[in-house]
Design goal:
The chain is built from five helices and 27 strands. It is mainly β.
């Protein structure tokens, strides 16, 4: 095993010894994961277990002297990744591609990714601290893998065979897909400025990114802090407001590039992911991902933040009501119910309906008054739908976070609005 991998394995072992003990439920789950790994490699040393909001669990372990990472979803191994040294002919083809398309980038490592039905090479290249993942067949030809995960509830093929809800969009066929650079692989909230540029935040960096759809690139970065879990964003003229997952709001002057203020509203839930503007009043509304600390576990609150900073519950959203709406319109998909955890929300500029995304179980929920319509979203298109915005004509943008392996890229998708369809 290369020294870099050995050093990494030793570091992971040391870190693991310093971590606090997990709770009872997680301990039993970790034991099941370890058993699954040891079925594939008896005597494996588990180094790290990492969970993501998409349901993927990444387990890193030593199999003898080989460092392996397994991606596990719903109790099954979706993929395994291990560092390899391709033969000279394969590396020659890869090097030629890198010389043409990534001149000046340095090769970091090559890994073999194995899934249930295929194998391919993942090549990591670096430049100025930025990492890019490229994919090749095992013979060294360029390769574009599909997402490793698909929803265990529905797939693109399943949804194509059903009469999907009609509210002006074909959500199974984006009109345009903008693939994000690695810096926005974990893109979460989005908002549109007056010039039609997309302002973005991502999960791990306190910065607002301006992405120009016409140029297909990041044109500005406004850094306001170091790290934090930032989930959504709004823009009013020169004022940008960013939501942190604990409800903390940061207001920035975009033109002067300065902090205006920050506030911590007294919210009923500990986890917030949606932030949108009331077009009539300009007030901000925060949508909770989880239930309130005290109250019904079924409830998700929409809370209005007044100009005086006071918090008022505007309305409540119900996980049970969403499940019932899905069962009404698409009964074959609703046998086990759904998990509704809002990840973004926005008011439609034409119909004035409230649109709410849920990255969990991949749903778009439309609330027109008390009427609820639910549209399932396939994982092949929406790996982790986190952001939502509308153009004035009703065209819809949905941002989707990519996976950590770089196989499912972060993206922004545009869906054209056609009223009555």
């Amino acid at each position: 095993m290369p020294n870099t991998l050995l050093h990494r394995a030793i570091l992971l072992l040391l870190l693991a010894s310093c971590l606090p003990s997990p709770g009872h439920g997680q301990t039993s789950d970790d034991r099941a994961l370890a058993n699954l790994v040891r079925e594939r490699c008896p005597g494996a040393d588990i180094l790290r277990i990492e969970r993501s909001g998409s349901g993927l669990v990444e387990v890193e372990y030593l199999c003898g002297t080989e460092l392996v990472e397994a991606g596990i979803h719903n109790g099954r191994v979706s993929y395994e990744e291990r560092e390899v040294r391709p033969d000279a002919a394969v590396m020659e083809r890869i090097d030629k591609t890198l010389a043409k398309q990534y001149a000046g980038w340095s090769l970091d490592e090559v890994a073999l990714v194995t899934t249930a039905d295929t194998s391919f090479l993942k090549v990591e290249v670096l430049q100025d601290g930025v990492e890019q993942n490229l994919y090749f067949t095992t013979t060294g030809r360029k390769y574009k893998p599909s997402a490793l995960l698909a929803s265990d509830k529905w797939t693109l093929a399943t949804l194509h065979g059903l009469a999907m809800p009609k509210f002006g969009y074909d959500l199974l066929d984006p009109d345009t897909v903008y693939e994000m650079p690695d810096l926005l692989r974990e893109i979460s909230g989005i908002a549109l400025d007056a010039e039609g540029r997309v302002l973005c935040v991502q999960d791990e960096l306190g910065a607002v990114f301006t992405y120009d759809l016409r140029e297909g690139r990041i044109t500005d970065v406004l850094r306001f802090t170091d790290i934090g879990d930032f989930e959504d964003i709004t823009v009013q003229g020169d004022t940008i407001t960013v939501l942190r997952s604990d409800g903390h709001l940061v207001r920035l002057d975009r033109r002067r590039r300065t902090l205006i203020n920050a506030q911590m509203p007294a919210l009923a839930s500990l986890n917030q992911e949606g932030l949108y503007l009331d077009p009539a009043t300009g007030d901000h509304l925060i949508v909770s991902k989880d239930a309130p600390v005290t109250g019904s576990a079924d409830e998700r609150q929409v809370q209005r933040i007044g100009r005086d900073g006071r918090v008022k519950v505007q309305r409540t959203l119900s996980n049970a009501a969403v499940s019932q709406a899905l069962a009404r319109d698409l009964p074959t998909l609703a046998a086990s119910g759904v998990l509704f955890q809002p990840s973004a929300a926005e008011i439609h500029p034409v119909t004035k309906a409230l649109y709410v995304l849920s990255a969990s179980d991949r749903l778009l929920v439309v609330l027109q008054g008390e009427t609820i319509t639910v549209h399932p979203l396939p994982a092949e298109i929406f790996y982790k739908p986190e952001g939502l915005a509308f153009l004035p004509n009703g065209d819809m943008l949905i941002s989707s976070e990519g996976d950590k392996k770089g196989i499912a890229k972060g993206s922004i998708m545009r869906f054209r609005y056609a009223a009555g369809k």
